[in-house]
Amino acid sequence: MKILLLWPKFPNTFWGFKYALPFIGKKTAFPPLGLLTVAALLPSECDKKLVDLNIQKLNGKDLYWADFIFISAMIIQKDSVNEIIKQAKKFQKKIVAGGPLFTTGYEEFLKDIDHFVLGEAEVTLPSFLEDFKKGNLKKIYKPKKFPDIRQTPIPLWELIDMKKYASMNIQSSRGCPFNCEFCDIVLLNGRVQRAKDGEQILKELDALYNRGWRGSVFFVDDNFIGNKIKLKEEILPAISKWMEEKKYPFDFNTQASINLADDRELMELMVKAGFNTVFIGVESPNEESLKECGKFQNINRNLLDSIRIVQNHGLQVQGGFIIGFDKDTPSIFDRMILFIQKSGIVTAMVGLLQAPPKTRLWERLKREKRLISQPTGSNTDCTINFVPKMNSRFLISGYKRVMSHIYSPKNYYQRLITFLKEYKPKKKRNYRLDFNHLFAFLKSIWILGIKEKERLYYWKLFFWALFRKPKLFPLVIDMAIKGFHFRKISEEYLS
Questions:
Q1: Residue 48 and residue 284: Cα distance in Å, rounded?
Q2: Is residue 157 part of a domain?
Q3: Smallest Cα–Cα separation from 180: which of 107, 255, 75, 270?
Q4: What's the rounded Cα separation, in Å, for the pair 37 and 261?
Q5: 75-87: average pLDDT
Q6: 348-352, strands of its sheet edge to edge
């Protein structure tokens, strides 16, 4: 059986880094970890080919070659999925679909997709393969339980060209103990966190290392700190030892909840293991909005103090923020701007609230007859898929003002300096300076320092960092380049 695994194209987004990637000579940010894991779950006798449409175009030769086309996708990739379906139908190929887009919204594709393998592939793909052998395939395969991911195989990395990507990724756990109203993680992966063991994670790190990867590795866990005891007693000590033995070939980043700030030991262990960045869903400076969406881990605390604690322990905080809650008042726009600038969160993803299918938010809005469309999957594209309590035009106008403010060169660079003053790395970062980094530095001088409108702020930051934070100078240039991307993306959406 010949299987063509397809990863659909992303539109230009906040996390796509379209305008930053050319600085380092990369095509896209991350490889399709889910599809690579599915490939590893397929029988060894299957011929497999993976095409990432964010790197290359889909051609007729690949489609003609395949017996089955496997597609995995997120909501934001829907437009690309529809294009793939059109092309596959021309060649009369059978399509098998899975991933978040289809798990929560397969009904929309019933006419066009031949088979759905929903949920986590470890529990549904074996049934599909067994029925294939019997010649009796069903239309839909739904999971009856969550799998034990300690049995999950190492992703089939040989199917991709790692040099095309800015970062690799790895997963040590699935599930999140929290249940935010707008989040679909509970639907997809459950509230009880399921974790791999330390030995398994080290084998996955070995797989990346042995294929020559050096650099950034993103732990894509829904909430990395969902099981603090296992992390502190098993996972992080094992990673720390491995990193020391390998002379620190990777630097790690991940996603976590704000209660990370309450555990000094955990932060110290993460930094020792090589983590330097953590994405935290801050969501809102308005506590009533946090209560509304069930973000209880964020209330009854000074969020700015919590962020500074994490920064002071050597972890850069990237933040997710949302505007459009029912409890938001007209003051939310100025409050959001002030909070973000004070926080020193350089990478601040501010989005309009969207209701993903089948989430608690979706079901509530459905009962209230406020849903108006499917979400686009991008909460930074100035769209909203329900009727908000605030006037829609006023809401979108205020949102655009927030984005225009925080990603203007003056405010972005000011926020970067605020972060650098709070950031206290506990160990010297192991920067790997190669041709790509040198090229990025020189290109930043030309584009950011001479050509583009942030040039004045670039040079002020350049010399400020060179004399006051020389050890962090590579990080400063990296953040300046990312700021250029964020500004360009914001301007695209705001126009």
A1: 44
A2: no
A3: 255
A4: 32
A5: 97
A6: 168-170, 215-219, 250-256, 275-283, 316-323, 348-352
The string of pLDDT tens digits covering residues 152-176 is 999 999 999 999 999 999 999 999 9
CA distance 256 to 218: 12
Q: Which domain holds residue 466?
A: 435-494
Residue 268 to residue 252: CA distance in whole angstroms: 14
Is 429 a member of any domain?
no
Cβ atoms 48, 3 nearer than 8 A: yes
Residues 304, 258: contact at Cβ < 8 Å? no
Planar angle of CA 123, 125, 130, nearest 5 degrees: 110
Q: Are 166 and 26 in contact (CB under 8 A)?
A: yes
Give the mean model confidence (pLDDT) for residues 457-471: 96
Evaluate if residue 138 carries a pLDDT over 60.
yes
* Cβ-contact 479, 464 below 8 angstroms: no
The angle, 0 to 180 degrees and rounded to 10, between the axes of the packed helices 236-245 and 264-273 is: 30
With respect to residue 224, please indicate whether it lies within any of the assigned structural domains: yes
DSSP secondary structure, 338-352, as one string: HHHHHHT-SSEEEEE
Q: Is the pLDDT of residue 433 over 80?
A: no
Looking at residue 428, its pLDDT comes to 55
Q: Which of 286, 231, 287 is CA-nearest to residue 254?
A: 231
Whole-number pLDDT of residue 495: 83
Instruction: Map residue 41 onto helix, strand or coil.
Output: helix
- Mean pLDDT to the nearest integer, 77-98: 97
Q: Is residue 158 part of a domain?
A: no
pTM: 0.96
Whether 59 shows a pLDDT value over 70: the answer reads: yes
Phi, psi of 109 (to 5 degrees): -115, 15
Two structure tokens written together for 370? 């406020």
Whether residues 441 and 418 fall in one domain: no
Contact 175, 149 (CB under 8 A): no
Confidence of residue 426 (pLDDT cuts 50, 70, 90): confident
Task: For the chain, report the end-to-end CA distance as a whole number of angstroms.
Answer: 48
Q: Are 9 and 54 in contact (CB under 8 A)?
A: yes
Separation of CA 462 from chain center = 29
What is the mean predicted confidence (pLDDT) over 29-45?
A: 98
Name the amino acid, one letter, at 107: E
Our count of domains for the chain comes to 3
Kindly state whether residues 237 and 372 are assigned to the same domain: yes
Task: Give CA–CA dist 218/170, Å, rounded.
Answer: 6
Q: Which tens digit of pLDDT belongs to each residue from 317-338?
A: 999 999 999 999 999 999 999 9
As a whole number of angstroms, the distance between CA 168 and CA 220 comes to: 10
Share of the chain above pLDDT 90, in %: 96
